[in-house]
Amino acid sequence: MNIRNCRAWLAAGALALCLPAAPAFAQEAIAQFDIASSQALKPGQFVWKDGGDTSEPVTVTVSIPLQRAYVFRGSTLIGVSTVSTGKPGHETPTGEFEILQKKVMHKSNLYDDAPMPFMQRLTWDGIALHAGNIPGRPASHGCVRLPSAFAKKLFAATEMGALVSINNDPYDPLSAPPLPAENFESSMSGTVTASQDVVPGRGIRTATAP
């Protein structure tokens, strides 16, 4: 996706902007932002484009330095959000992960039953994507916090086993689209139970040659 196409996409009004209690003029201003300027989003803000070829897999890339999450359907960017990753001493691990478990409402097993709405588990030792407070800096105990409305949309869009890449590099979605899902070999094994739990499996993918 080049810059011209991205701007045309935004100009066509295909993006739905979600802001916490922002006036209409502010929503219009943010909606006109180029995806390349997604750093202009304020904590708790995101952009999301609904639609597209739903047969394509949804993948997520998280940039820790930018505190951003980028969502792709196939190679098409469909969403950008502010996030909050792990604070010092509780850094979010980097690497390639798979979604191991999904629960609309989950409570932390490690931190006093803290609520974790729209939880999507990445590791069996407590790392997940979930809705939470976005203060504009790394502030979690290792999870990737998402704005609540964005977390709900992402939860609905992803499937079990979806690829989530977390990295320590500033990430430009216009110049570096994600590696297609078919270029990864899954090492996860798991069974979804009636209660939406999953029998533990591994949650890391390794890249293969295109």
What's a concise summary of this model?
By secondary structure, the chain is of the alpha+beta class. It is built from three helices and 13 strands; from the N terminus they run αβαβββββββββαβββ. The chain has one domain: L,D-transpeptidase catalytic domain-like (Beta Barrel).
Topology, pairings included?
Layout: H1 3-11, E1 15-18, H2 24-31, E2 46-49, E3 58-63, E4 68-73, E5 76-82, E6 95-98, E7 101-103, E8 119-121, E9 128-131, E10 144-146, H3 148-157, E11 163-167, E12 184-186, E13 205-207
Parallel strand pairs: 3-11, 9-10
Antiparallel strand pairs: 1-2, 2-5, 3-4, 4-5, 6-11, 7-8, 8-9, 12-13
Descriptive tags:
single chain, 210 residues, alpha+beta, L,D-transpeptidase catalytic domain-like, 7-stranded mixed beta sheet, 4-stranded mixed beta sheet, 3 helices, 13 strands, 26% strand, globular, disordered N terminus
Description:
Strands 1-2-5-4-3-11-6 form a seven-stranded mixed sheet, with helices on both faces. Strands 7-8-9-10 form a four-stranded mixed sheet, covered by helices on one side. Strands 12-13 form a two-stranded antiparallel sheet. It is globular. It has helices spanning 3-11, 24-31, 148-157; strands at residues 15-18, 46-49, 58-63, 68-73, 76-82, 95-98, 101-103, 119-121, 128-131, 144-146, 163-167, 184-186, 205-207. It contains three helices and 13 strands; from the N terminus they run H-E-H-E-E-E-E-E-E-E-E-E-H-E-E-E. It is α+β, with helices and mostly antiparallel strands and 210 residues long. Strand 3 and strand 4 (68-73) form a beta hairpin. The protein has one domain (52-207): L,D-transpeptidase catalytic domain-like (Beta Barrel).
